[in-house]
Amino acid sequence: MVISPSLILLILLALFLFMSFVAVQQGTIAVITMFGKYRRIMTPGLNFKIPIIEQIYRRVSIQNRSVELEFQAITVDQANVYFKAMLLYSVIDQDEKNIINVAFKFFDDKNFMQALIRTIEGSIRGYVATKRQADVLGLRKDITEHVKEQIDIGLEEWGYHLKDLQLNDITFDDVIMKSMSQVVASNNLKAAAENEGQALLITKTKAAEAEGNAIKISAAAEREAAQMRGQGVALFRQEVAKGMTEAAKELQQANLDTSVILFSMWTEAVKNFSEYGKGNVIFLDGSPDGMQRTMKQMIAMTTLQNDKS
After folding, report:
1. Which CATH architecture has domain 65-172?
2. What pTM did the predictor assign?
């Protein structure tokens, strides 16, 4: 079977057209070289290139990329610090100059990652070397800002931008970690003891205040009660005096001796002794002489009061 030249030409033309179209994936930029020299870039989508002459040198990703880092640093007081970090970076933009830097600054992505990781580790180590072990844990944000400030300029020259650096874990040697936990525990015990002491002081103070207020209230009540008792006794005596005065006037009008009142009061007193004594022994002189002495004394007191009035 003989193949005609026109068929061969048609096949070559189809093959040429097939090799002339290139599909660039979304999120990537294709760098084209011709005879080993940079020619142009291809954006995402269907692109045309000259077969054989133009070659795709590299496909540059413009998406965000991340990498995890683990490294060690030494503080100024010779303590080992272990870091675990997450690095987020990307190409600055799709500008042709940046794409050229990304494509040709490093031989491949492996070499770029090695340079990037070593640069970040060196920056963090240099910063930590000026700090004390006790201060490192509180400098997480400062370390991140320091690294960003130090390497952003270098990354821009390479066509990249550092978007974020997160220090996820900062640890020390086991001995240091144990001593730090002991310090925290002792501080917690100290704070607990101080809080307990303050609570006890407040409780004692409140109890003393309550007791003092109770004493004040009790004293005021007792004073008021004593005052009322005194007023009651005074009123009682006043009423007794009024009653005796009226009784004496009536006896005088009836031409009777007022000593009868005293005798009546004496007998009433003896009666009350017997009724309300509740078994108590009371000695009274019940003889006529004793009664006569008592009457004389009561008459003398009455006479004295009348003279004074």
Report:
1. 2-Layer Sandwich (3.30)
2. 0.53
